[in-house]
Amino acid sequence: MEDVIRLLPDAIANQIAAGEVVQRPASIVKELLENSIDAQATSITLIVKEAGKTLVQVIDNGSGMSETDARLSFERHATSKIKKAEDLFNILTMGFRGEALASIAAVAQVELKTKRIEDTLGTYICIEGSQFKNQESIASADGTSLAIKNVFFNVPARRNFLKSNPVEMRHVLDEFNRVSLANPDIEFQLFHNDLEIHHLLSGKLSQRIVGIFGKNYRKQLATCQEETPLVNIRGYIGRPENAKKTRGEQFFFVNKRYIRHAYLNHAVITAYENLIPKDYHPFYVLFLEIDPVHIDINIHPTKTEVKFDDERSIYAIVQAAVRKALSVHHLSPMLDFEIDANFSGQTHANTAIQENPLYQGTNKSQGNSFPSSKSSNQIKQRASDWEKLYQDLQKDTPETNAHWAKNEDKESLTFESGVNQMGQDSLFKLSKENNAERPVFQLHRQYILSPVKSGLLLIHQTGAYERILYDKYKKQLVAPKNITQQLLFPIDIKLNASDFQLILEIEPEIRNLGFVFVVVEAQHLQLKGVPVGIHHENHLEIFEEFIEQFKNYQSNLEVTKLEMMARALAKRTAARMRVSLSGQEMNQLIDQLFASENPNYTPEGKAIFRSLSLHELDNLLATQN
Ligand code: ADP
Ligand code: MG
Fold first, then answer.
1. Closest to 477 in 3D by CA, of 512, 504, 515, 529
2. What pTM was computed for the model?
């Protein structure tokens, strides 16, 4: 019998390796940017098209390559960065495996132009799927340009596996942000589909942070610095009050290499303990400088992990450094202060809903029966039960109303100021003059109470709005109608690059919702119209909150884009609806709520109303009597 083992041809070996190195266009971005940095470039331009699916190009003014090196650079394990095994323990460059270019060239069409300063002519090389197509001497600028076209052109399975452009572009931006943050002394430019997204001049770290994340970060940064024999720490942390619901703007760099490190992240978070509410994430960009002998970065080509030989000490130092920064900047509490008092309603208006007792424990008690997973029959059944309750009630309305009105009248003086006087007046009238209206009562702009035949109906006001608005926006997204209210004065919106990018990608849907805007220039929009029904005068805030909410969902939920949009806008608009309502408005709200397919739950699965039977109310007071 013949021997059966044979060595794989290089092209196939490279393609297999590419499976690890090149997962998506963003992986190419990372590898190319790091190569330019290793080549001592001081100016780097990244050009992507279709979120990198059709083109990722990096142009640098670094060392360039000789003709031979240019050709060799595409060979597997070809690297200029380490020579012997010991070098592995003293790595100061970003790359060292020598497999990136070989892997990329295995799964894409690659054009390289490179020239060293000392050469008169440069080299042009064209490779497709590991096959050399062309090589010639050409006139070119000093430095290197690598254009990677049509990634996975020869691996359809992987091409189909790529996510939508917005998702892929976010990955590209993540890589760009990491590399450019780590190298503020290098000038970076980023173009997407010919639009300039970033032009970051070389400067200080703080300038780089502001350049990437936007001008409003200027006031949010506190310096963090600590020098110890084991490790030096420097960088910036965000003020507690600027912590966000979305995780993401948290960066650790070890010797300028971006890493993810759950343990060290924990060190930072615990330093913020009691300063930010649960589920909020502080901003930080922290650089750790440590002798390479203490770390092992040789774990996996794409994993952003590093092993420290003395993790516990590093943890303690990081935590101490952040604590110090917080106290130096007077960002720490004097004594343990009440988080709720400081955060609800002010910086994070939306916590009102989350902290609402109505909602607490609903997830637990509902188990996993998220509304969408409930059979719609069951839901309809429930809804019609409620209608019946009301229908029955109408029969006894005159009496009940009379009671209600009388008691109301007597007791109104003892109510707290939060109660809507106007609401009571109109309620009083409505219930007297129009027996068709349900008796309703608004409590602290948060709850609507209404007597039903069996007892009392308790409705969460913003929860009800959220459901109704969600239904409306969902319809609107599927079959858009013209529902914009033009703004008298257009509002300028300045955005950071990634939010701007996101908005461009979801522009058609945002328009369908009723927002109208024009792009003045990159990262600068002018809002000219908002969806009808948004009464709050601060339209900018609504817009920004909506985008923030959308991003928040994007990272957490496994639902469609339209669903996320409808949810995001409904949630943010509804959060503003803690307002006084007239009796008529409350009645309308109840009508609309029960007209919904699913009045029981908000789109996120929180209960909207509960009925308390007389029996339950009796039990509630039984302990007293
Ligand atoms: P590694 O970065 O691990 O060495 P790569 O496959 O990324 O492996 O690159 C192979 C080699 O090609 C590098 O070691 C370097 O010598 C050369 N090279 C790649 N990109 C550039 C560039 N932009 N400028 C100069 N040389 C480069
Ligand atoms: Mg490399």
1. 512
2. 0.61
